[in-house]
Amino acid sequence: MLHQILFFIFASVAVAAAINLLLQKHPINSALSLIVVMGALAVLYLLLGAEFVAAAQLIVYAGAIMVLFVFVIMLLNAGLEERTPGSAVATLIGVPGVAALVGLCVFVFARTRIRGAAGYSIGDFHVSTQDIGRLLFRDYLLPFEVTSVLVLIGIMGAVVLAKREDAGPTDRSPDITAEAPRAESQQPVERTHA
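Above: the chain's sequence. Below: its structure in token form.
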């Protein structure tokens, strides 16, 4: 009973933070909401008995990846997001798609209740860290490395986007020479050529 209560609490936190992520106008606030989603997912993994996945979720996603996201956002100097009226195509495809997905979920849950299927109990699967490491670094090495290359490409893309060609003069520009005010004794002496 306690597992179900905790599940519904942290599932609600994850869904609320995900909705907040979409509704925020500033990208930093959206990134912080995404960290809350990742933390709530880590607790859900703990409830399922997957301690390693929960720790990886916190360390890798809520830690490293989110620091990378915040770094990229700050590198791009993203301000407030511009709101557009929306796409008619997204509305025409998205609303029926969401309705179909909700209908499918209701159908599956109702059918499971009618049949009386028990499903899986919490903590039914026991996998050691050694098994996960063997799968990750032997069987699934290629997808793991492709993912790291994609993250590297994302960083490089952020750096390229941050270097704007149309930027106006900055403090580092040679066109601007800012000098501190000089005292009267340090004023340049005018030379007269005779």
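The mean pLDDT is 76.
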